[in-house]
Write a structure and sequence with these properties.
The chain is of the alpha+beta class and 376 residues long. 24% of the residues lie in helices and 34% in strands.
């Protein structure tokens, strides 16, 4: 049986150093929820607080209606999958998967049945008699996941579980993890610094930086309408361009390098006035003007052919650089040194205040705002 997780005003300190301060969060029952951020942002610390491996200096943690702050980790009914697999090297695959069930002193028939069920679910049944040293990294991680799920935990916690695998295995295993999570329907909290991985597996993501959550939302929301410049640059790739915002008869115009002006209809009305801004324009949101008459003037510095798409690296007249992605053409690639003009998909771009602290466009959704409104 899965549970929802509720965290209110969490605080974590090491001596005088505060790692997490006043963090609040709701994770839905059965949700695949990811904590995403750079190294040292506090995501693993928060996961370990949920698990009971780290002390809690402030706030309240709940599984459903049960406050777990002082509950022994062994009684929280969690499954845990670590970065280094943490399977027992002196036990066969079958005995590893059965370990938690035996610790709970379940009947032998039930242990055998559940062990068999999860060996088959994780497609490692044929390796049941093998020792871990004879398994690949991906197979070992499947064993660790089977062992964590076999005990029927209320919550599954995963700390960078794929970081030790090679690129191909990471893609394979993240697909496996998502499929199994969907099948089992267990509340899952997943920690990673890999934004592509997070977007591939998550129902929702909390982007963290310096112990604070910057934005909570679906992968689509975070990519298309990031709350601030940190989220925009951490989720996917984007070109950050110093620009100016001008107000003309109540409408907002973005002034890009070289003085090219384009009307932006997605801006919130109260944000339209003359000011310096940061424009976040993803590579696919810049388009080469075939007639070479309108748009931002740029020069091709390099081109990288990647099959379906070609990535171009350009610089503008003021020296700023950018990357653009265009569908590869059969006949040619634009040569280095070529002068081009770039149009902008204004309905998709994001515009931030000069400091990058908040987005000026409409449609920004941040589940974190729920807690801020409650505090206000």
């Amino acid at each position: 049986m899965s549970v929802n997780i509720k965290i209110r005003d969490a605080v974590k300190k090491y001596g005088d150093n505060t790692i997490i301060s006043d963090l609040s969060l709701d994770i839905k029952e059965g949700e695949f929820f990811t904590l995403l951020g750079p190294s040292g942002c506090g995501k693993t610390t928060l996961l370990r607080m949920i698990a009971g491996f780290n002390s809690i200096e402030g706030g309240d943690f709940y599984f459903g209606d049960t406050r777990i702050n002082d509950m022994d980790p062994a009684k929280r009914n969690i499954g845990m999958v670590f970065q280094n697999y943490a399977i027992f090297p002196n036990m066969t695959v079958e005995k590893n998967v059965a370990f938690g069930l035996k610790n709970r002193k379940l009947p032998k028939e039930e242990i055998a049945s559940k062990t068999d069920q999860f060996l088959k679910l994780m497609k490692i049944d044929e390796y049941r008699d093998r020792m871990p040293e004879r398994l690949s990294g991906g197979q070992q991680q499947r064993v660790a996941l089977a062992r964590a799920l076999a005990i029927t935990p209320d919550v599954l916690l995963m700390d960078e579980p794929l970081s030790n695998l090679d690129a191909k295995l990471r893609v394979e295993m993240r697909t496996v993890i998502k499929q199994i999570q969907n099948d089992v329907g267990i509340t899952t909290v997943y920690v990673t610094h890999d934004q592509e991985e997070a977007m591939a597996v998550s129902d929702r993501i909390a982007v963290m930086n310096a112990g604070e959550i910057q934005q909570i939302g679906t992968p689509k929301i975070l990519y298309q309408r990031p709350a601030n410049l940190f989220v925009a640059t951490f989720i996917g790739h984007t070109n950050v361009i110093d620009a100016k915002l001008k107000e003309k008869e109540g409408e907002g115009w973005l002034v890009l390098p070289g003085g090219y002006e384009v009307k932006v209809e997605t801006l919130r009305k109260e944000e339209i006035y003359d000011r310096d801004v940061k424009a976040s324009i993803r590579p696919e949101e810049l388009v080469v003007d075939a007639d070479n008459k309108e748009g931002v003037e740029a020069t091709i510095d390099d081109a990288v052919f990647l099959g379906l798409n070609t990535h171009y690296f350009v610089h503008f007249t003021d020296g700023e650089t950018a990357e653009i992605v265009q569908e590869s053409k059969i006949d040619s690639i634009i040569e280095k040194g070529s002068k081009i003009r770039l149009g902008v998909k204004t309905e998709k771009i994001n515009i931030f205040d000069e400091t990058g602290s908040y987005n000026l466009v409409q449609g920004v959704v941040n589940d974190l705002d729920v807690y801020k409104k409650k505090e206000a």
